[in-house]
């Protein structure tokens, strides 16, 4: 069976709507909810983990251990970092890095031991790719955005690279399909609270659009 890992309740709600899931098809586990759907002959287990690395990895390990998953596809939203990309672009990264595991004042931001390479060669090349950076903090402040750009990060989120790391430890294939929901904006000359609120509104508006695009156009190419 293939697991489809989803972080937020908003993203999971979009999945429930897209696949028209009834109340009696929804089950609870320690990190959230899950349901099953057959897509093009493949039995898929969709589950919500909650946000940030500890929830993503906890949910990942639970589902691998309980359902003996053969593969996990992480789907959801992310911040855009590379400015050649746009909101609602879907990216399937070939590299996933945790960038909050070093003392960045005296060490490189990214260390080899926290990088997971993702081999996409069997899936063709009809998709955008790049590096996803994961940390427990959302990318909101302009200085954080500039630092990720300087380190060649394409998109950023708060779970995916940690889930990819957990999958690698379990010898389970991991694919990440993320849609850009928001870009940080430069708050330095304005009101940082207003700028943050605007980014959250953009994120909320784009979440169902991103999820529908991933379910409609991407998931079946990677199962
Ligand atoms: N900018 C982002 N940085 C990192 N991850 C992002 C971003 N956007 C989307 N995600 C993804 O969506 C979820 C939640 C998004 C989130 O927490 C968020 C989004 C926008 C603004 C704020 C804020 O506090 O102002 C918080 C996470 O699961 C994560 O995987």
From TrEMBL:
A Gene Ontology molecular function term of the record: adenosylhomocysteine nucleosidase activity
Record Gene3D superfamilies: Nucleoside phosphorylase domain (3.40.50.1580)
Residues annotated as domain Nucleoside phosphorylase: 2-211
Keywords, in A-Z order: Glycosidase, Hydrolase
Broad class of enzyme this protein falls into: hydrolase
InterPro entries (UniProt xref): Nucleoside_phosphorylase_d, Nucleoside_phosphorylase_sf
PANTHER family: 5'-METHYLTHIOADENOSINE/S-ADENOSYLHOMOCYSTEINE NUCLEOSIDASE, 5'-METHYLTHIOADENOSINE_S-ADENOSYLHOMOCYSTEINE NUCLEOSIDASE
Name this protein carries in UniProt: Adenosylhomocysteine nucleosidase/adenosylhomocysteine/aminodeoxyfutalosine nucleosidase
């Amino acid at each position: 069976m293939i697991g489809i890992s989803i972080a937020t309740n908003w993203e999971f709600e979009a999945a429930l709507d897209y696949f028209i899931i009834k109340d009696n098809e929804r089950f609870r586990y320690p990190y959230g909810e899950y349901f099953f759907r057959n897509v093009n002959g493949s039995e898929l287990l969709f589950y919500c983990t909650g946000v940030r690395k500890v929830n993503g990895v906890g949910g990942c390990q639970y589902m691998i251990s309980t359902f003996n998953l053969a593969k996990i596809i992480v789907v959801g939203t992310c911040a855009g970092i590379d400015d050649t990309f746009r909101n609602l672009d879907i990216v399937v990264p070939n590299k996933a890095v945790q960038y909050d595991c070093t003392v960045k004042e005296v060490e490189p931001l990214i260390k080899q031991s926290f990088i997971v390479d993702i081999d996409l060669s069997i899936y063709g090349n009809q998709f955008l790719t790049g590096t996803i950076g994961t940390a427990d903090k959302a990318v909101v402040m302009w200085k954080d955005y500039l630092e990720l750009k300087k380190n060649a990060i394409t998109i950023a989120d708060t779970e995916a690279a940690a889930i990819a790391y957990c999958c690698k430890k379990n010898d389970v294939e991991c694919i990440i399909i993320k849609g850009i929901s928001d870009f940080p904006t430069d708050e330095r000359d304005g009101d940082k609270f207003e700028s943050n609120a605007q980014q959250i509104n953009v994120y909320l508006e784009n979440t169902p659009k991103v999820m529908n695009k991933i379910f409609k156009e991407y998931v079946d190419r990677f199962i």
